[in-house]
Amino acid sequence: MTFKTSYPFIYFLENENQVLVCEIRTNDYITISDLSSELEGDPVKKKLYHLGNTPFQSFNHTTAAEVKTSGFTIFVPELDLYQRAKIINKMIQQHRVPSNEPVHLAVGGAQAGALRFFLKRPKKVIAFYDDLSEGPIRDLPSESGYKTRMEWLKKHNRIESYQDCLNVETALLEIEDIPRTAPVTIWAGGNAFDQAGKRFFLSLLKDRKNSIFLAEADSLFLSGDTKDIERLEEGKRELGQREKTEYIEQWTALSSANSMLRVWGNGVLEEAPANYFDGEILTAVNRLQENEGDFIPLTSIQFEVSGALSSAFVNERVWHLLMKGRLTIDRMPIFQAGTMVKSRE
Fold first, then answer.
1. Which of 112, 120, 143, 343 suits a disulfide with 106, CB 3.0-4.6 Å?
2. Nearest Cα to 307, choosing from 334, 280, 326?
3. Confidence of residue 337 (pLDDT cuts 50, 70, 90)
4. Is 138 within 8 Å of 148 (Cβ atoms)?
């Protein structure tokens, strides 16, 4: 993708004759939908210009003729929009001035949503949507590590769109932007998803002198009002340097391994083989068969083990158990709506 920048403008070479000019009109990071929208108040204003005989590197939209589109919108593939959004967000980062308000880091949208709704201002809530308890984490947070992980997430159906990728990358930009004097609270519960995220956050903040606090997140979804959330926040504790170092060392050890699964138990986060939960899945199938009948909906199995694994991971393990002959299904292709599963044991 050929582009050049002149803040607040970014020029993208559309083809040999046209240039898309994007004017940044926001201090916040954008989404893919911001680039596909055509509303007057959009955070990025977009116009198409004729390049003419001007070399692209010398192009200036103020002296160029605008392309008249006659009211229709030019289709742009999502991958192109994603790549443009990444470029624009990097430019926004170079020029934005983050506010020095308290920062709250949460793993997953549900936690972040509760904090945004109930916590009193001022606050900045950053949601990290990637479940680091599953899949490769080797060499994170290096660029090569992210590339390997994103390829795995796409291949294994953990992300549905390029916006999912952008959400993770935007969260990383926001963590980079945390002012050096802002207090940071990390919310984490007693599960591998949260605990992997907590250690990852601390590895990103390892060179920071910010005051860092840990808050218990398991009760977030049981809390029904602002006072409940505030009590949870009041119960947070400041993280000492020794404990911070221990968490970072744990992340370094985990991200140096090739394991595809991390599990949480007895206060320890550790790597595990991919078949670690196969016994639990088989037990769930047998238990459900006793109560519900012969074939069991795949969704029921997912619900039974959802506290430890994502639905996508359960599907993968069910497939492996099918291939081993320990389970059978009532239809093909597998994992279509209404798939039923039965134990052969």
1. 112
2. 280
3. low
4. yes
